[in-house]
Amino acid sequence: MFLSRHEAMLQAIVVQPNDDSLRLIYSDFLEDDGDFERAQLIRIQVEMRQLGPKDPKFPHLRQLEQALIRKNDVRWKSELPQFRGIEYENFESGLISSVRVQDPEMFLLNYEKILNAAPIQEISGHRFRPDWLGTLVALPEFARIRRLDLSDGNRIGNLGLQEIVDSPHSRQLTSLKLDNNNIGPGGLTALAQRGNFPHLTVLSLDRNALFADGLQQLAQATGLSSLKWLSMAWTQIDSTAMQALAEAPFHLRTLYASGNNISDAGWRMYAYSEAASELENLYLERTLIGDDAANALADSPRLQHLHGVYLRGNRITDLGATAIIESPHLQEIEEIILGDNAISAAMHDPLKQRFGRRVQIY
């Protein structure tokens, strides 16, 4: 089939979505063709990604980016193939990068047109069954997908997770979100024993009944060595799961474990482990921890890089608060939440003197 120059350039980007040089060449072509604003968005977003949010030029570029998207969002998305239950979302480096699938059958019938129309790297799915998911991850085109989010209204269960694990096209995933999917220890056993995800940095498993057995399996997963962001809130795990996580081969930067019976002993084991040495954000809200856990948080030199600490709804008293105030390691804290604990009003001023507006006590 003959492709126009425009189609050929777009397909090259679809196949190599991370090659900025292809996008910049494409932006020159678009400008020459009279599509100045689309060309401008590509250049602006490429520059933003290269500079990063801390660069002083970033806020101005963000304003220009948002103005262009507000003006053209509906029109640009309407030019893509339209199907019932398929919504295009998010621009990255100037082009649509994600698709929300509300109708899995419709998507699977038309996946070639959808995935070849733009450099899609993220799929957010709704109403997926294990068999439909198996069909999706078996597609060769799925190898282009970097982020898979099935946290919205799916029930893929252990069978669905096994389909992801066993697909050779899943290896390039960098983010996998599977909240509330009826996944149990059996699914994590498959992930641990057969999973090979060398690029996966984000894994979310909130509100699945994982229990300690599941997390013990996950902690042994050698195929998750790049994992940096793990969410396992409200998964019915306990202190033994935290002890297993202390021996995991991955070093997390963000850990969500709220809503579980972690206990002081479980947290203490993790806090002093090498596995915690890169931790920056910690969520332990409503985990039944008390002063011993607060002491470990304050005392462990492994936790010196913490930026955000979220401990709402626990059993920390003035003793734990005093340990946190006197900690020599919590120098990089940007936000610490201590509300709904047993901390008295007498500790409010000392906490504010140490952390200023970075602490929330109520």
Which keywords apply here?
362 residues; alpha/beta; twelve-stranded mixed sheet; 12% strand; globular
Describe the structure.
The chain is globular and about 70 Å long. It is α/β, with parallel strands linked by helices and 362 residues long. It is built from 15 helices and twelve strands. The mean pLDDT is 96. A twelve-stranded mixed β-sheet has the order 1-2-3-4-5-6-7-8-9-10-11-12.
Major sheet: 12 strands, mixed
Strand content: 5-15%
The average pLDDT value, as a whole number, equals: 96
What's the tally of helices? 15
Q: Which shape, going by the Cα principal axes?
A: globular
Strand order of the largest sheet: 1-2-3-4-5-6-7-8-9-10-11-12
What quaternary form is this?
A: single chain
Distance N to C terminus: 65 Å
* Helix-strand topology string: HHHHEEHHEHEHEHEHEHEHEHEHEHE
**Strand runs, count:** 12
Q: What fraction, in percent, of the residue positions are helical?
A: 40-55%
Unreliable spans are none
The class by helix and strand makeup works out as alpha/beta
Indicate the radius of gyration in whole angstroms. Answer: 23 Å
